[in-house]
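Protocol step 4 of 5: obtain the predicted structure for the target chain.
Materials: sequence only (see below). No template structures provided, no constraints applied. The aim of this step is simply to have a reference model before the mutagenesis design in step 5. Sequence pasted as it appears in the construct record:
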Amino acid sequence: MTWSELTNGPRITKEQFQAQLAQYPKSGILIACAKLSVGFGYGPDACTVPLDHVVDLHIPIVFPRVLVPRVNRWVHDKGRLPFFNGQLRFLAAETVRLQPERPVPEIPENGPKNNQFGELMLKSGELLYKKHVIVENKLDGYANIAAEFLPSYEITSPTDPLFSFLRFYIWLTKIIPRIPANLVKFDLEAEFQKVFPFPIITYAEFIATFAMHALRERQNQTYDKPIDATLRKSWLKNTNIPEVTIDQMFETVSFSLEHMPNAKDTLGYGDFEFLKDRPYFLFNGEMYMLDYEFALGKLESAAIWRVLRSLPDNKKDPWLSFWGLVFEEYVTWMFETYASSTMHKLYPNPTYVNSTDQICDQIIICGYTAVLIEAKLATCTAADRYSGDYERVKGYLEEKLVKTKGVGQLLNAVRRFGDADVPEYLKGIKRIIPVIITRDDFGGCWCVNAYLNKRFV
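Step 4 output (structure tokens):
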């Protein structure tokens, strides 16, 4: 559902939207976004759309009385969606980006009235849009659809955020300790504590605790009293954590009115990178979670990406290579742990006979079938993933998932199956299944699989 359709008016421009936001204090909008996120139940179980009864409850609250009957008709008769998680993300992001010449007084009570928020959310959803451009070349067309779809995929992710947190926690506690010492080129703890004032496991425990608070808020929401959505230091009063440590943790995950993120420039309509880096709004000593998914992703974003930004240029590529090794080992661990050892035989880091040349990252044999796996950390840069430019996305696909590694290495392995230096366990194989596993959601993006299949020639 869009505001222009609902009111039979023209589509709003981003400049008009920013001018409207400038009428309100930033704190009022950001706190309201945090409270609505709780009210709608966004986050747990990959919830990006509120339940029907929650929608019905909020319609008369966030829309003017005169529009409520029309909104209800659109929802119940036309099946249109009035609320989704991306609206609040965009609204919070545009509020942070806003740089009004004459800031209004920061008094939260002077923020938008309840019945004005429906308008702001519908306008936010309307601006999360890029007109589809038809590209004639089939391969370019796949890349174009991926370029257009990727930001939308991230706006309403289908993955439970808890899984991402648990995955990275497994990396820290299970995967890194099992990597041979001679392959580990970094002291992870030392590099982390150059940026953060506490051990990485302490940081992980904080993130988990904050997530528990947010989950309890959503589970205990009865809608018979105002939503609080506030994380206070007093919530940790029964722990033995020094207050100075709590203050330091609050500072690492949040931003305040006095220290706003440098987010004026945007890479595209789905660009929420600064909210991923600092997903909490700190106001009067209290934190408000702006996004549940981004908050649980802080463990990974802090350990990999914030540390990466602090490293000198000559250490950045080795740092990413280290995490690529961790991801490869994680994929091996998953198959060791969950695949049936009686039906499957796993060969990690397989090489050719009398050679150190690697065939691929893993091979799994099941009867006369061989599954050849390439595990790719290869995260697409924000500048590419939010550009909406198919040529940039195609460049990423070719560089990271096709040439040399990825498709290129798997294709080379298939072509060499008849060579004499192929390991004995690959002789007699009748079916080959090549697979690329990516760390981020790029590999699950619409048409990426079609693109890679097309290049597997």
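Step 4 remarks: The beta strands are 254-255, 280-283, 286-289, 345-348, 362-366, 369-376, 431-438. The mean pLDDT is 90.
Proceed to step 5.
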